[in-house]
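Hi C.,

You asked whether I'd gotten around to modeling the 350-residue construct. I have! Everything is below, sequence then structure, no commentary in between.
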Amino acid sequence: MEPVLIVLIILVVLALVALIRTIQVIPQGSAAIVERFGRYTRTLNAGLNIVVPFVDTIRNRIDLREQVVPFPPQPVITQDNLVVNIDTVIYYQVTDARAATYEVASFIQAIEQLTVTTLRNIIGSMDLESTLTSREVINAGLRGVLDEATGRWGIRVNRVELKAIEPPTSIQDSMEKQMRAERDKRAAVLTAEGQRQAAILRAEGEKQAAVLSAEGEAQAAVLRADGEAAAIRTVFEAIHDGDADQKLLAYQYLQTLPELAKGDANKLWIIPSEVGDALKGLGGAFGGLTGQGGGPSVTAADLPKQVPADGGGARPVGAAGGPRPVDTDEKGAARPRVNPTREYPQIDPE
């Protein structure tokens, strides 16, 4: 019984192993290559698959999802003989599992070497400045070459990116100095432009202010002239409407004479020539001061045209040629001294 039991146990184990090898479950996003006696038979897709045990074998399981592979920095010489280190990243996807298995031994290594050689060809035709500023051009060139070469391998290159471009340390220092000088130059240009704009705006403002001030002064002068003209016109009309006679005009004229002597700096004041005419008219209006007041008559010819003044006020000269005593008021203006024994005519200001 024991040998029979052992044989049964062996048969059950072989049946289980055969069942396991017969049923193959492929996950989503993957594929498997099946070989029969070392020859490609078919590709297993995602799901439950049945194979012949001990006859069919699974050669390779391939991930069909997009893969990201970073490559280490590669030294590349530019057109101006500068060595730069460039890091690249490849985004690829397997579209044909059979070609990726049988057309190339290791497609990852093949993509890396193809990327390095293509990158050296592209960078070798560009100088350092173009290399640093033309990443899109380099990416497009790499992708075009890789897509064409890897198409027959059943691989599609979706994107190629340059992670970093590192020039030598000495070149980095020179570039930093150049960038700093360029920024200083740009700052100086912007500062000069700002000062220029400020000067222009300041000049425009001063010009407008001067124009407005001149216009204001002109308008003020016109208004003052109009006001003075209106005042003169009003006074002239008032005089004509009041029918002023020679007496009133002469009296008003004489009242303005003390204003001529006002001021501490007045040492000499001029009597206008019209004073004689005013006194003459005033004397004629009073009917002649000679005979009524008992004093001599004064004419315009008897009065001097210019009378010096000292600190005590002006001293007018009388008709007899001798000085006539005068008094000064609180403002320093000269006024005639009144004789209490003499009778003076009453002057009606109206």
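If it helps when you're writing up: The longest strand covers residues 83-94.

Thanks,
B.
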